[in-house]
């Protein structure tokens, strides 16, 4: 038994650490905001209304732009056994939102684990350990990983792309980025372009090497190398085109049925946000905001360390450069939010972990000893900032807490008649979803 426990901790200890922090955030703050409303309501309707599409919330409240149902379907399928048990035990639906958020968190943390294992294989166990420490001390990544945002659904697929990239599986990485762009977040295109360029250059370099080997061994057949190179190039392009068509066909098929009109959701989002530039109606920030506000708040101690990591290890520049380009390209759009660039955090954490490892290993040397104590101070500051940010976030869902209190008072009053509750716009944007609703005597308008 002790051996099994030791093996479990060795293989999954890091995942249990990150998972326990994410679970704490879910239980402490189960409510959601307006940005999450579509996926939350979609998951509720899939789990409780099932095939009765006329009762689905999005038909009455479609939102500014349509979103895909594919992510909601996946998460709902994983959470459905828990919802079945809840229904048998007659538990409140509020437990349902915890179930779907935990299911989503499992998906995201699984993809993060896949990426972490590639980090360990490429950079070693110490870098992996510091990667986990930095991630655990940051608030936003683990808090957001359970929140049903389109950005987070895309984030999971981007993590897979990073892992395949590190593992040398170029086609799988590109396919993941294409799928994330077509289905979940069209703005992943800003990551696909620089990262795809580097991956395609890697493919060309590989094909060039193969052409050279073939040309040496088959020098008697002069047309052979060119012919093979041409065929392999066509194959690469054909696979990417098939991935694009498959992703587009899947989202158009499913979402046209659910929205009851011919629809490619992310194309409409791209048109609304980029072509019409309507996203700026929800606020704007200066060009430098991601670098002077969003990244320092999300990375904390990792922010100065990631810049040091690029200087200390030349290998990491290849990985940081396309992600940094992604943030720079996104900075051109006037409307900015931290969640838009959440997928850049793991790579920046990797660079920071490399710097932290180098500092730790040289901590006994005079100059590095100073850096070591500064790093410890940064880690302590990260812990304090995370605690303060969590306390602020806990108070950031007033409507959810208010409705919970109303239900408690109503239960004590023991009403026998229907009790009508009006959910205004502010309440719907700040904590209340269909999962917060109770059965008789409560009715909501």
UniProtKB/TrEMBL annotation:
It catalyses: an alpha-D-Man-(1->2)-alpha-D-Man-(1->2)-alpha-D-Man-(1->3)-[alpha-D-Man-(1->2)-alpha-D-Man-(1->3)-alpha-D-Man-(1->6)]-beta-D-Man-(1->4)-beta-D-GlcNAc-(1->4)-alpha-D-GlcNAc-diphospho-di-trans,poly-cis-dolichol + a di-trans,poly-cis-dolichyl beta-D-mannosyl phosphate = an alpha-D-Man-(1->2)-alpha-D-Man-(1->2)-alpha-D-Man-(1->3)-[alpha-D-Man-(1->2)-alpha-D-Man-(1->3)-[alpha-D-Man-(1->6)]-alpha-D-Man-(1->6)]-beta-D-Man-(1->4)-beta-D-GlcNAc-(1->4)-alpha-D-GlcNAc-diphospho-di-trans,poly-cis-dolichol + a di-trans,poly-cis-dolichyl phosphate + H(+). GO terms for cellular component: endoplasmic reticulum membrane. The keyword Transferase applies. It is a multi-pass membrane protein. GO terms for molecular function: dol-P-Man:Man(7)GlcNAc(2)-PP-Dol alpha-1,6-mannosyltransferase activity. It comes from the Eukaryota. InterPro entries: GPI_mannosylTrfase. The chain crosses the membrane at residues 12-31, 69-89, 95-115, 127-143, 149-165, 177-205, 237-259, 287-309, 316-333, 339-360, 372-394. GO terms for biological process: protein N-linked glycosylation. Coiled coil: none annotated. Its EC number is 2.4.1.-. Keywords: Endoplasmic reticulum, Glycosyltransferase, Membrane, Transferase, Transmembrane, Transmembrane helix. It is found in: Endoplasmic reticulum membrane. Its main location: endoplasmic reticulum. Pathway: Protein modification; protein glycosylation. The keyword Zinc-finger does not apply. PANTHER family: DOL-P-MAN:MAN(7)GLCNAC(2)-PP-DOL ALPHA-1,6-MANNOSYLTRANSFERASE, GLYCOSYLTRANSFERASE. Belongs to the glycosyltransferase 22 family. Mannosyltransferase that operates in the biosynthetic pathway of dolichol-linked oligosaccharides, the glycan precursors employed in protein asparagine (N)-glycosylation. The assembly of dolichol-linked oligosaccharides begins on the cytosolic side of the endoplasmic reticulum membrane and finishes in its lumen. The sequential addition of sugars to dolichol pyrophosphate produces dolichol-linked oligosaccharides containing fourteen sugars, including two GlcNAcs, nine mannoses and three glucoses. This is Mannosyltransferase. The lineage of its organism: Eukaryota, Viridiplantae, Streptophyta, Embryophyta, Tracheophyta.
